[in-house]
Every structure is written in C-alpha cells, then in structure tokens.
Amino acid sequence: MSDTAIKHAPFVRQEYTRDVQVPASIGEVKRALPILERLWNMDMVRRISILVLLAIIWETYARWSANPLLFPTFTDTMEAWWSGIISGVIPARLVVTLRMLLTGYALGLALAAVFVTLAVSTRFGTDLLSTLTSMFNPLPAIALLPLALLWFGLGAPSIIFVIVNSVLWAVALNTHAGCTAVSETLRMAGQTFGLKGFRYVTKILMPAAFPAILSGLKIGWAFAWRTLIAAELVFGVSSGSGGLGWYIFENRNLLDTANVFAGLLTVMAVGLVVEGVIFRTIEIKTIRRWGMQH
C-alpha cells in the first residue's frame, strides 16, 4: 500500500473493555434537614420573625424614651388594640372602611378593564389611555378631595370617587404594559383562531400578561388603602362618618396615643393579610403554578 493510501486511510480505534466496579454502599442520598433549617425555609416563619424583631425594637425604644404620650410601648398598644376589638369599636370602624374600599376598588378595576380593552383593540384607545394616564396618574388622588366635595358632597360617594381615581390609572397602566409585552407568537396564534376584541383580550393577552396585571392589582390596592385612610381623616372631621381614619383622628384629639397606634396597627394588619394571604394565594395558584415566576 502506498504512503498516500496509508495517509488517507480511516483511523481505527482499538477496542477495549473495563470492568464495572460496583461500590459496596452508595451512601446517604437523601438527608433530612435539621428542624431549625426546615422552619427557616418557611416564608411564614421568616415573616413572623421579622415582626417579632420589630416588636422588640419598638418595646425597647418606648421604654427607653419613657414618654407614653408621644410613643407608647408595644404592650400598651396591644392592650388598647385588644380593648378596641373586644368593645367592638375597631371592628365596626373596620367594616365601614372596608365597605368603601371594596366598592371603590371594584369600580376602579371595572373602568381599568374598559380602558385597557379599548387600548389593545384600537389605536384610538391606545392614544386615549396614554393621554389620560399621563394626565391623571401623577396627580395625587388626595388632591381631588375638594373637587369631590363640590360634586358629591360629604359622605361615602366622595371617598369612593377618590378611591376610584387612585386605583384606575395604576391598574390600567400596568395591565396595558403587560399586554404590550406579549410576544408576537401568541398574538398571531390568537389571530389564527379568529379571536378578536374582548375574546382576544381575555383568551390571549390577559393570561400572558397576568404577572404585570397582578403587580398592577397590588399597586392599586396599596394606593386605594392609603388614600382611603387619608380621605377618612378629612371627611370624618367634616361629616362625622366613622372609619379607621376617623378613629385615628378622634383619638389623636383625645391625646390617647395608644389608641392612635392601635388604629395604625389595624391598618398595617389589614395590609399584611391582603398582601400575605390574598395576593400571595393568587400568585401561587396562577403565575407560580404556570412557571412564570420563581
């Protein structure tokens, strides 16, 4: 055989075999975590630990300052809070506040859905939503209190009007941003199946944009909650209507600082329940289950 043929001949790898060594024992494949590590991996335990730490800092600083008129201790606040619950004052004020909150929040979500549907369906709707959000979203909702007084007078309708304004633009802006971020593949898939208008929004855009929608719902809830408490401080003084905001203002006039802190503690407790239970359950059942969030 010539040198050229040898040079271009395919390389033949030498065959060999190896004996597989089976270990006598594989070892510990799965090991149970220590009880403290398992507890610390639970979100609820970590959150409760943070709350306990804050309570300890609160109690320590209040005892060090020794001025209950300005800063009551955590134990005094809890006693006032429990006394308000047992007497039924705080639950009654909370019911009044939540009733107005849910009404305004629901109306704000309904209007946001209308604006977003128009925006994703027509060019005019997009321009309309962009213009209105640029005008009203930077405007603090509390600044509409004088206008609400002129239009609706004293009472719940004025507060609900302010809540709607605080919810509407935040939810609409986040929802529209999520819808515009949906990939063209999903959009064309919906158009291929003949989906248009409302069905196109509910079947394609809303599920794909749900992470942004959920963020908008959280922001809208936070805006509505703090706007409501601030509005009740003003409207409660004007009309005597009783909610948590009026409860806080009333006790401030009486220099009962412990009850003022108890009212604030109720506001924060409602926020923790809504964020940690309601919205978190929705998040687990939807976007985490779909693999859209880790």
Structure description:
The structure is a single chain. The protein is flat and about 105 Å long. The mean pLDDT is 81. Helix 4 (74-87) crosses helix 13 (257-288), helix 6 packs across helix 8 and helix 11 (210-239) packs across helix 12 (244-253). The longest helix has 33 residues, at 89-121. It is built from 13 helices and no strands. It has one domain: Orthogonal Bundle (MetI-like fold). It is mainly alpha-helical and 294 residues long.
Task: Name its key features.
294 residues, mainly alpha, MetI-like fold, 0% strand
Superfamily at the CATH H level? Answer: MetI-like
Strand content: under 5%
Question: Please, what is the average pLDDT?
Answer: 81
Number of helices: 13
Q: Over the alpha carbons, how many angstroms does the gyration radius reach?
A: 30 Å
Q: How widely separated are the two ends?
A: 65 Å
Number of strands: 0
| Shape field | flat
Order of helices and strands: HHHHHHHHHHHHH
